[in-house]
Fructose-6-phosphate aldolase
Amino acid sequence: MKIVLDSANVEKIKAGLEIYQVLGVTTNPTILTKEKRDFFPLITEIREVIGDKDFHIQVTGSTCEEMVREAGAITACVGKETFIKVPTNEEGLKTIKTLKEKGYKVTATAIYQVSQGVMAGIAGADYVAPYYNRMCNEGIAAADSIRQMASLFKEHNLGTKIIVASLKNADQVLQSFAGGAYAVTTTPELYREMVESALITETVGRFKEDWEALYGNKRIYE
Ligand code: E4P
């Protein structure tokens, strides 16, 4: 079970790295729009902040040739170990195959169907990224799809890992892991929700009050 930060906000990434045991960072063009910054300086700064942790960056071209050129420009900037996120359609499969032949790391993204995941796995993708909440919005059984993908990858010894994206609540995260996902990627806000609530705050506060009633300002480390 690994967690990844789905964000391009440098301050949020820095804060997330201090709290959570994260595998890395994922971005997409929609996430980048929130930052309103030039692309290359932004990904350079994120790479500096995360060091050698995994970094997944999406291409935007519509042809294999464009996406391969984008992959070259991205990795020239932030390193060849960066995962190139490629949408999983026919042109994307061609791109995944080409990028793998050239030694790139690849994350197949925009996955709504088990069949996409399987085709991306066969093409050699390192990761597939099913979109949990977007699947739910389309009436697709996300948890079952993830479970089926995980079981097929295992049964056929594909090295492809599942990183579930588009997660909107803790239950979706837990269902992803229960279904065999290797990793999930979501916002720092959702990770916070997973461990912070009024109930937890109240409980921790009560322990502090009880300690102080007994020992006043004395600290354990004194
Ligand atoms: C990962 O980077 C995915 O693109 C992202 O999680 C999609 O999330 P959304 O459905 O909230 O846009």
